[in-house]
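Chain A, query sequence.
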Amino acid sequence: MKKAIIIGASSGIGRELAKVLSQNSYTLGLTGRRTDLLESLRNDISATSFVKKIDISEQEDAMVHLENLISEMGGLDLIVISSGIGFLNTELGWKEEKETIDVNVTGFAAMTNIAFRYFLKQGSGHIVGISSIAA
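Chain A, predicted structure.
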């Protein structure tokens, strides 16, 4: 059975993609900050699924949690990183800019680092990044 982790599965594209992968016989790792929404998703799909709270703005913790999830799932074939934030920040306030960078750049890079190292050791795997022009 194929195994996929979706970073940002609690809403939007990540949530809908989880439904599609569920219909295509994937075992799923569902991650995000809002575990209530992840649990709701787990109840809505038929796939075997694992729920783990991962906040990619906290990269060190997120990297450990992702490694643990891969282990709990018994491996990984696909990771989809669909987590991001954005602000209308016309004043270019640094707080908002830093939060965006922490999630959309540094968080993405941290998740990709863990997945790439795992796939390199395994000899195969796919990394999908979903973003927006605003990100």
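Residues 45 and 92 are 40 Å apart (CA to CA). The radius of gyration is 15 Å.
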